[in-house]
Here is the input.
Amino acid sequence: MLAIIGGTGLTQLPALTITHRQVIRTPYGEPSGPLTFGELDGHPVIFLARHGHGHTIPPHLVNYRANIWALQSQKVSHVVSVASVGGMHPDLAPGCLAVPDQIIDYTHGRETTFADYGEKPVTHLDFTWPYCEDMRQRCGAALTKAGEGFMNGGIYASVQGPRLETKAEIDRLVKDGADMVGMTGMPEAYLAREIGLCYAAIAVSVNWAAGRGDSSTGISPDVIEATLNAVMGRLRTVLVNLACMSYGAPIPPRNGGVCTA
Ligand code: HPA
Here is the structure.
């Protein structure tokens, strides 16, 4: 089954016919909220608002482990994250979309693994390609079917937040090769890999990153909100297209590159 993790601007899915909500208890604490079970165009999906129903949980306090564990416990096989980003690549003006294929993790102090408690030998899981290619392809097909152009690939810089960046920080991210910057990509993508979920993100550029384009002197929250409102309507069709695909069994974590320390 498909799960949708909604980020900023997507705390609920108006197109979703809700069947029920379920509070899931996890060994890692509380998820961001109850899971919403429902149907998009007759196809079952589970929806979770990453920042909570009222958007009250900042990126550095999201319980990523509980969220991912909760989804996996409900027979989810595939996850799409809808993630707002600041655009750094010239093709990522506000309102543009991307399906990134790489991540650089600049976050700190977050719980980054399910394997904390010494129950299993330490393994170093392959993360060369951090997103599940099957889910990336599905996102691309769903976007194309909806008539949306998008950047296929690109490097997502995952930063700590909740503040936006300085111009110098964005200059550094650009030098590092990043194309877009957001606050929630990690450890979410890695935890999904660790637990065997096929995970990809649709990144929505909601502003030029600090010091770029019309953000040269600052980033206006009004611009972010207006862009979010405009784009989220378009994404509904994309998510319905994704829900219409058939989803098989969860993909087991890749073993390539594992070594036992
Ligand atoms: N920086 C970091 N995260 C973001 C931004 C940004 O400019 N826009 C939306 N999420």
Remarks:
- Residues 253-261 have pLDDT under 50 and may be disordered.
- The longest helix spans residues 221-243.
